[in-house]
Amino acid sequence: RNFHFTSRADFLHIESLMPAHCCPTKWICSSHSVRRELCQQVAPDQQIEGFSDREQRLVDRLYNGLIQGHRACLAEAITLVESTQSRKKKIAQVLLQKVLSYHREQEKLNQGKPLAFRVGLSGPPGAGKSTFIECFGKMLTERKHKVSVLAVDPSSSTSGGSLLGDKTRMTELSRDMNAYIRPSPTRGTLGGVTRTTNEAILLCEGGGYDVVLVETVGVGQSEFAVADMVDMFILLLPPAGGDELQGIKRGIIEVADLVAVNKADGDLVVPARRIQAEYVSAMKLLRKRSKVWKPKVLRISAKTGEGVSEMWDKMTEFRDLMLTSGELIAKRRRQQKVWMWNLVQENLLEHFQNHPAVKDKIPLLEEKVLSGVLSPGLAADLLLKAFKDGL
Q1: Which InterPro entries match (predicted)?
Q2: Domain stops at, among 329, 352, 367
């Protein structure tokens, strides 16, 4: 049978729609026209159509290495998923589908409970995020956990480059065999979260990492994008920053499940206590998002390690409560839907800009908008009309 899909999110989640009596499948997308992708069902023992032996061996090698916990294979798999080259994208989708099937089997063996705890971490520059991750990660690896850190690094809007220097600031943790740190450039993606972060989380979980930390850039749109792909969202704040509640957007406090005031040591203990009290009173005014969990405000010091262990206790308490009440599973399902529509929007825009009926008109209309001959609204209507007529 042949299946037609409009987005790669449909493609990723199609297996969950298959009846139970179907044989195990692999999926592959091969482009036959500009307008649509044809996805074909292939038996596992057959050669994947359109793939060379070398590509098939690459998928098998990465998959086997990944589930055996090899960090080099995980790194290579994430690089493959991040690639924008169309051929590599197709190979990445086949690999992701295999990992997704394995992931589902492992969850069944785990009585339907999630395999990993996904944690989003954000805060303004200078809040001590890297120091905290180093201290927190070391504590978890000592307790026999496997930790992966996906650090999203902002790309320069001028040069398009990224420093990707987060690893250099976590020297101890990056040498730990039970930890994996991966900085990823945003490449100008809205929200500062790479479009492949969600898929990188899946690969990390497939590699046996049971705590996945997603660190984001500063304070802005990225928090909302990350909150849609993690189980728990933590806001890390420095103790001294002027008018505290003005300094942080209200919307970000609303998505935070836990607020940690870092650097609560030495001379900063008193300001840290004051800010903790301010946030505790501010949290009372916010609308409740969960029936079982009330957001907490803690004081910690990543430098001395004080309060970090207690913070992990609160995090596990959150996970257990959310899991028992069924809210965690419901949240993850909702996130998959949100992510599907995000990918649909992104892919539609890409398809629209590269459509033959539109591609040539874009520079001309942009020029007219720049010179003030056309209004942006009229130019957009003309492009959409050309797109509809060309379908």
Answers
A1: GTPase_ArgK, P-loop_NTPase
A2: 329
